[in-house]
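Private note to self, pasted from the team thread so I don't lose it. Backbone tokens:
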């Protein structure tokens, strides 16, 4: 008789956004004529920019000829894309990242879930609270997180770093020493950012205690403040302790194409392992994992990613980001006018609001759906410190953003 990976059975309920989808579907079935505005899941709505579309068409035509047809992609990704990323996202910003330290994938969500596979079963992780659920859930599936407490919403073997209004939504160095530290800035869900000086503290800390930082930079394209770092590699010493995740989903609208990258410098080295191996690079482990379990993002999609770094692509993507940020500013200012306490929305497409009258985040979800026909994301789904908060995204249309705020203002 086969057995199960019972760590899956420890996961409470269903995945956050699956639960939201079920609730919305039930409401829609009961109110077939309801005009629902979805500002919950962080899915983009603008079409791909012209530079990307043009490159896609060219790549499709290449696949129609034996001379230019492409099959499996190289393990790390095509050199043209890795070089463009290394040059534009890193070296042009003064970050020392080589082409072969970039691994192309089908998205940051996959990589953020899979990166834990190269670490030992006994490592202890520290996460911001609230936090993107995949970081914790993937480690639960691997058996690292201990037992779940229904009352506190916490796992016994996870170090939680509260990010609240009291500390500006920036985590403080933990009192217990972790092995893996998950950081995401601009932050999902709070929409807040971290200064370079604050981020440097984390790099220094990780190097001091021998921890690895998993740094999710999926929303860096939304940073408008020039003093805010776009990459952890802007910090001195990050090459010896930090792995960075990148995504094309939100900056270039690739949620339907799927493309991302993980950056692992050769300098992150384990001097000696438990089985006696010396000077083992994490880069080599991820390369082995990548080559064994993954056949690469499609050539067509990687060509589309390459178009994002053309002069036309950069300009067009910048316009798209500006459109979403226009939505974010409208949502944030509208909520403030309505009397809500609001955060984020300045260097991020997410707006994080305090629920009124001490309502739970799911109570506010239900009220917003019933009275305004607006869908958002309950903060408690991101961790215990997310309770009494709520996330709205700016990825809808401007018209729907305006309509949603008007409905919220008129709720009775």
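Design output:
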């Amino acid at each position: 008789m086969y057995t199960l990976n019972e760590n899956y059975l420890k996961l409470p309920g269903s995945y956050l956004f699956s639960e939201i989808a079920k609730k919305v579907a039930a409401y829609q079935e009961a109110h077939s004529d309801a005009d629902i505005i979805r500002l919950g899941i962080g899915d983009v709505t603008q079409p791909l920019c012209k530079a990307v579309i043009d490159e896609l068409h060219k790549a499709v035509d290449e696949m129609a000829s034996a001379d230019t047809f492409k099959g499996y992609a190289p393990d790390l990704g095509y050199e043209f894309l890795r070089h463009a990323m290394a040059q534009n996202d890193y070296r042009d910003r003064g970050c020392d990242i080589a082409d072969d330290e970039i691994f192309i994938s089908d998205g940051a969500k996959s990589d953020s879930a899979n990166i834990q596979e190269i670490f030992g079963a006994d490592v202890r992780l520290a996460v911001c609270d609230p936090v993107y659920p995949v970081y914790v859930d993937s480690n639960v599936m691997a058996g690292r997180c201990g037992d779940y407490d229904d009352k506190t919403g916490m796992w016994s073997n996870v170090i939680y770093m509260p990010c609240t209004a009291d500390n500006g939504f920036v985590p403080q160095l933990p009192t217990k020493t972790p092995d893996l530290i998950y950081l995401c800035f601009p932050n999902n869900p709070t929409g807040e950012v971290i200064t370079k000086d604050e981020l440097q503290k984390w790099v220094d800390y990780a190097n001091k205690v021998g921890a690895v930082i998993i740094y999710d930079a999926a929303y860096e394209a939304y940073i408008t403040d020039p003093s805010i770092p776009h990459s952890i590699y802007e910090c001195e010493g990050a090459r010896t302790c930090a792995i960075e995740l990148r995504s094309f989903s939100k900056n270039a609208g690739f949620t339907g194409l799927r493309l991302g990258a993980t950056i692992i410098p050769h300098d992150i080295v384990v001097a000696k392992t438990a089985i006696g191996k010396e000077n083992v690079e994490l880069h080599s482990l991820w390369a082995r994992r990548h080559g064994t379990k993954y056949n690469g993002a499609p050539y067509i999609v990687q060509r589309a990613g390459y178009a994002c770094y053309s002069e036309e692509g950069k300009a067009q993507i910048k316009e798209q980001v500006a459109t979403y940020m226009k939505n974010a500013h409208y949502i944030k200012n509208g909520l403030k006018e309505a009397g809500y306490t609001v955060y984020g929305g300045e260097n991020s497409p997410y707006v994080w609001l305090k629920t009124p009258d001490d309502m739970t985040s799911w109570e506010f979800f239900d009220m917003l759906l019933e009275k305004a026909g607006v869908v958002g994301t309950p903060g408690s789904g991101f961790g215990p410190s997310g309770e009494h908060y709520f996330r709205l995204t700016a990825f809808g249309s401007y018209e729907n953003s305006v309509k949603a705020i008007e409905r919220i203002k008129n709720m009775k």
